[in-house]
């Protein structure tokens, strides 16, 4: 159906004239999935404080926001007696961030940035005052271990790890991994779409979540305890939005194999031999 030319409508034009409204050119708002010029400048400078649910996790374990690979760090640092402990900045979804998420601190305390000179915009909290400053921060060793960056491992000796942290370069990291993630944008084409498969990071993140949540099914009507070592394999990590490349803990729900099989388009889980074993060991209550 073709829309009428509203500018030629006598009644509407009379109403517009009576209201004193002038004709204006329509300018579409930028897509919420695309960074504005202001956001790009802020990412490269003071960073952006946003709900961290908006930051996703790529298959390589690094973070991206609106098509840009980003780092995350704590901006507000409490100062006591003129002293403060500077936080680390994070390259990946490591054990530290996973724990922060579980404690409910991740959303409130972190900002994202693409700045690569090693300096970070910090606010030192002195009582009721927030004093801005630029501070050098050190990279999180758990992130380096997660990415196996330049063969880094937490199993290395203290001296070797200290050297790796001291010589780490954000500029070098971004040169290797890249700041732009065109293929990670919400609208994919055949050449750039991320393959919807489980990444190595998924298994580590899933295991950490299971441990922290006590190996219990998160389905409200179930909540079965599978913490016994012989039962832990029956607890699955389900991707809520079906995107296996998105390993943000907010996108993962722990479900027993029976509850997992009941999820939309997950009937194939019943073909897993563990499904019959689980149902035999844990019969469903008659009134369930």
Structure characterization notes:
The chain has 288 residues and is an alpha+beta fold. The protein folds into 2 domains: 37-184, no CATH class; 200-281, no CATH class. The chain has helices spanning 10-19, 37-43, 95-102, 106-109, 141-147, 158-167, 170-177, 200-212, 257-261, 273-281; strands at 56-57, 63-65, 68-74, 76-78, 88-89, 110-113, 119-126, 129-136, 138-139, 235-239, 252-256. The strands form 4 sheets. The chain has a 4-stranded antiparallel sheet with strand order 1-2-3-6. Strands 4-7-8 form a 3-stranded mixed sheet, with no helix packed on it. It has a two-stranded parallel sheet with strand order 5-9. Strand 1 (56-57) and strand 2 form a beta hairpin. Helix 3 crosses helix 8. The longest helix has 13 residues, at 200-212. It is extended. It starts with 9 loop residues before the first helix and ends in a 7-residue tail after the last helix. Mean pLDDT is 81; it is low at 182-194.
How many discrete domains?
Answer: 2
H/E series, N to C?
Answer: HHEEEEEHHEEEEHHHHEEHH
Task: Briefly note the structural class of the backbone.
Answer: alpha+beta
- Taking all Cα atoms into account, the compactness measure Rg is 25 Å
Global mean pLDDT: 81
Layout of strands and helices, then pairs:
Layout: H1 10-19, H2 37-43, E1 56-57, E2 63-65, E3 68-74, E4 76-78, E5 88-89, H3 95-102, H4 106-109, E6 110-113, E7 119-126, E8 129-136, E9 138-139, H5 141-147, H6 158-167, H7 170-177, H8 200-212, E10 235-239, E11 252-256, H9 257-261, H10 273-281
């Amino acid at each position: 159906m073709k829309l009428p030319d509203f500018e030629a409508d006598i009644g509407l034009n009379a109403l517009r004239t009576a209201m004193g409204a002038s004709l204006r050119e329509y300018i579409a708002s930028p897509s919420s999935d695309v960074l504005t010029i202001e956001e790009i400048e802020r990412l490269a400078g003071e960073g952006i404080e946003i709900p961290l649910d908006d930051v996703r996790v790529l298959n390589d374990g690094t973070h991206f926001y609106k098509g840009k690979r980003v780092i995350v760090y704590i901006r507000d640092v409490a100062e006591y007696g003129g002293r403060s402990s500077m936080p680390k900045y994070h390259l990946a979804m490591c054990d530290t961030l996973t724990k922060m998420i579980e404690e409910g601190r991740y959303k409130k305390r972190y900002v994202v940035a693409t700045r690569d000179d090693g300096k970070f915009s910090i606010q030192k909290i002195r009582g009721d005052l927030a004093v801005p400053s630029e501070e050098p921060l050190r990279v999180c060793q758990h992130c380096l271990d997660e990415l196996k960056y330049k063969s880094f491992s937490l199993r290395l000796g203290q001296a070797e790890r200290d050297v790796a942290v001291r010589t780490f370069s954000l500029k070098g990291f971004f040169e290797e991994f890249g700041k732009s993630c065109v293929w990670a944008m919400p609208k994919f084409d055949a050449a750039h779409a991320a393959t919807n498969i489980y990444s190595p990071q998924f298994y580590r993140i899933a295991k950490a979540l299971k441990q922290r949540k006590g190996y219990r099914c998160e389905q409200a009507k179930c909540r079965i305890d599978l913490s016994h070592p012989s039962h832990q394999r029956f607890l699955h990590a389900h991707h809520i939005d079906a995107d296996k490349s998105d390993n943000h803990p907010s996108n993962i729900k722990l479900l027993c194999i029976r509850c997992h099989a009941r999820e939309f388009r997950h009937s194939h889980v019943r073909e897993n031999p563990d499904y019959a074993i689980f149902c035999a060991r844990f019969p469903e209550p008659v009134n369930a």
